[in-house]
Amino acid sequence: MFKGIMTSMVGLVALTSPIVAQTAADPVLIPAAVLRVDREGLPPISRLDLPPDDLGFAGARLAIEDNDTTGRFMGQDFDATEVATTPDAAMADLDRLLSDGIAFVVVLADDQMTLDLADRAGDRALILNALARGDRLRGADCRLNTIHVAPSHAMMADGLTQFLMWKNWPRWFLIEGSHGVDTDFADALRRSAVKFGAKIVEERVYEDTGGARRTDSGHVQVQKQMPVFTQRAAEHDVVVAADETDVFAAYLPYQTWEPRPVAGSAGLVPRSWHPAMEAWGASQFQNRFEALANRPMREEDYQTWLALRLIGEAATRTGSGDVQTLKDFMLSQDFEVAGFKGQKLTMRDWDHQLRQPILLTTGQLMISVSPQEQYLHQTSQLDTLGTDRPETECEFETP
């Protein structure tokens, strides 16, 4: 019924406005794709964290709805092709998308795969990184054809460190995992500690020895092992965990030898999004997503939604569907996009990282949002999070 009424209204307007009739009949299609590269691995420690089949794709569907809401008045139509692939098939799937004329590809993949896909795409597409957090992707391995919607490890670390320093918890006991991505986050935490004046009083590495993590005896073993692993540490205010591979950090709260708060990959966790977020219009945003997906929004959904909203916002602001026009505007100083985080999100021209606040969360609640108010910056307070212009190692290779 609603569609019928809308069609009749458009027809009525068409009698008096030929320009509107042409726009309604011949919208400009702006296609994109979401390429999710799934790797096999151990299941998460908690069954509550098992990834849904539509992870990321649900965020894309909401973004297309949002883009079309404005787009239909602008004579624009948005579409996002969803592709779930494997590392072995990712390149072929990207080639197929490019051959179909898709020039905007949202990528959900690890650091190396994101870099490989960007190199494969070259000047044929703009890659929007919606998952990989590696700082090298924004530094020594930066690519001109890539925009980073996902926050970097440096941004996450700085957001957390600012809060820990506000709490006057400067002495850290740092525990990192034994995988490369764990080391990347640990390195970001080390740099952040130096940047804001925290002191890492001791470091330890938790070796991943494999084996079952969700057996009947799992919690019994952890109850015995974690206190022993954390005992005799130097005097510290907080335990900071770097466990991007989800091996040990979730077991730390309430199991450490000394009664100390836990932060980083467990306890107080920095995130790009959290389903408990309610401020700045986020409640309505969460409700719309939950009505669409029948589940809470995850970070991967938010980052995918935001990546596609960049395209929609650029199209609305420029009134264009031309690929190069949209790219240029997204990377310009005039670009900004709303992200339900209390302030406009803008682009860093030196590494193509989207500026954004970092949420500090527990399992159930929002605790704070960084940047913390006492940390100021001459250009944007958001540039207190992550790699600032004077620190960047990114040197774009121009065609």
From TrEMBL:
Keywords: Amino-acid transport, Signal, Transport. Residues 58-361 form the Leucine-binding protein domain. Pfam families: Peripla_BP_6. It comes from the Bacteria. CDD domains: PBP1_ABC_transporter_LIVBP-like. The keyword Transport applies. Residues 378-399 are annotated as: Disordered. Residues 1-21 form the signal peptide. GO terms for biological process: amino acid transport. The keyword Transport applies. Belongs to the leucine-binding protein family. This is ABC transporter, substrate binding protein, PQQ-dependent alcohol dehydrogenase system.
